[in-house]
């Protein structure tokens, strides 16, 4: 029996504990995507249509917006004919030929305000992805493209908004060639709504991916990992979201680092004959600690590679969007991931956000 499984299926107790509305807020990723689509259809990004910029620069901190930028740059960077740059401070060379996206949850952050002001004075195209208010709004030096959040959620749940704003900006650059599959944000919204519906509190744990993930993590040291840079952006988001939502301390690191630490993980595994009821610390020594569990975030077409890389590890869960695939020896696709991986990775991001909300509610009781 998984730890915490009974609590996670107590719908009434979960609802009573959710005084902050964490579960409804974490389920709004699809609504955030639709809000971005609506803003684009209203013409918010129309000035970018015929622009061929020298560079697209994303100014953001290391929070939710930064992790969203890591995901989009990892997926789009190898396939688009314009440099994509993530930075905490606006570069000194910014000018009229550049697009600057200012993304961050803190409208009072002086770095964001300074970046928006200086980019405007230098006549760059400025896109505001964070809240357009306070010092940030007052600092603007000219017209901006307003892609600020329309769906009000906690900062830790704005990952979908920032990802989709950046995707919409790149997709609006009609004069810039992008190879490979294009992102379909309307379809992404539908898939995120489907995942959120499946993770409804009324669905039992074994039919609820977010509850099952929360049960696998609760009370366990956890390492989040992936085998691609895009997956690592989601893994980092998962580790930080579990900490900010539920106080669950975990780490995100590259899958090759995890494999290298495999002998250490084997040492932490629970002995087969360990029984906490009959364990006497005076005779048997310190009680065995919960072993470290590895959560691997991957896409369905790379599941085979993820399983092969982590086959020697003792406590591993492979997280993919949708049911587990049948074992196969087929190699994953060659070449860097592209926008075709956006939907499965965003589903995993939503699943981890909802799982962190469940974990918080279990801890509140």
Automatic annotation (TrEMBL):
Domain of life, per lineage: Bacteria
GO biological-process terms attached to the record: carbohydrate derivative metabolic process
- Molecular function terms, GO-annotated: carbohydrate derivative binding
Q: What is this protein called?
A: Phosphoglucose isomerase-like protein
Q: Which organism does this record belong to?
A: Williamsia limnetica
């Amino acid at each position: 029996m998984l730890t915490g499984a009974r609590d996670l299926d107590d719908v009434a107790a979960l609802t009573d504990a959710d005084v902050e509305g964490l579960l409804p807020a974490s389920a709004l990723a699809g609504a955030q995507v639709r809000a971005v689509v609506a803003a684009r259809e209203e013409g918010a990004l129309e000035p970018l249509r015929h622009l061929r910029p020298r560079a697209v620069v994303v100014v953001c901190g290391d929070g939710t917006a930064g992790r969203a930028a890591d995901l989009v740059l990892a997926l789009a960077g190898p396939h688009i004919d314009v440099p994509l740059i993530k930075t905490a401070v606006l570069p000194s060379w910014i000018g009229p030929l550049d697009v600057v996206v200012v993304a961050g949850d803190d409208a009072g952050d002086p770095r964001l305000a300074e970046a928006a002001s200086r980019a405007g004075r230098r006549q760059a195209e400025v896109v505001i992805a964070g809240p357009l208010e306070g010092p940030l709004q007052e600092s603007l030096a000219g017209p901006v493209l307003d892609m600020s959040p329309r769906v009000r959620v906690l900062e830790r749940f704005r990952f979908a908004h920032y990802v989709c704003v950046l995707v919409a900006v790149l997709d609006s650059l009609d004069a810039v060639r992008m190879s490979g599959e294009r992102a379909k944000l309307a379809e992404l919204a539908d898939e995120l709504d489907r995942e959120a519906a499946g993770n409804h509190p009324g669905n039992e744990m074994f039919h609820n991916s977010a509850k099952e993930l929360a049960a696998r993590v609760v009370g366990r040291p956890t390492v989040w990992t992936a085998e691609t840079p895009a997956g690592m952006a989601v893994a980092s988001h998962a580790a930080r979201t579990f900490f900010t939502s539920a106080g669950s301390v975990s780490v995100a690191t590259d899958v090759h680092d995890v494999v290298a630490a495999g002998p250490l993980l084997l040492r932490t595994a629970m002995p087969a004959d360990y029984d906490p009821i009959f364990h006497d610390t005076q005779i048997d020594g310190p009680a065995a600690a919960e072993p470290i569990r590895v959560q691997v975030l991957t896409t369905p077409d790379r599941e085979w590679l993820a399983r092969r890389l982590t086959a020697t590890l003792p406590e591993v869960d492979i997280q993919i969007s949708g049911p587990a695939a049948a074992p196969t020896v087929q190699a994953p696709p060659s070449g860097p991931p592209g926008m075709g991986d956006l939907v499965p990775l965003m589903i995993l991001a939503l699943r981890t956000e909802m799982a962190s909300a469940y974990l918080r509610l279990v801890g509140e009781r």
